[in-house]
Protein: Alpha/beta hydrolase
Organism: Hyphomonas oceanitis SCH89
Amino acid sequence: GARMRDKMHAPADLPVWLRTDDLEFYTQEFERSGMIGPFSYYRSIQNSWEQLESHDGTQLRPPAMFIGGECDVTTGWGLEAIDRVGEFVPNYVGSHILSGCGHWIQQERPEEVNELVLGFMRELV
């Protein structure tokens, strides 16, 4: 089977949206605090499913929109759910999969993400 790391690659150069000093800051923070916080989300995911089980089939009524990156492995894992979200969210306005974009959509495509979010918000007022 494929592994998550098979979908990821180390770029030859940092992308324009990630500066060296930003990367150094993130590295220092993870070295200082470790990965307990980020990994705890994944450690507790089974508990999250169990806690939400009683809400199975409940429709979510607030307006919603999905924005994801085409190159984000989590978007790929969720494509079937993304296609069906309108069945469970009556006020779903749609999905936007940004081509060539990874997991950090706000950093990679700030103008495009801001435009989508602002357009979504304008429709609410």
In short: The chain has two domains: 20-56, 58-125.
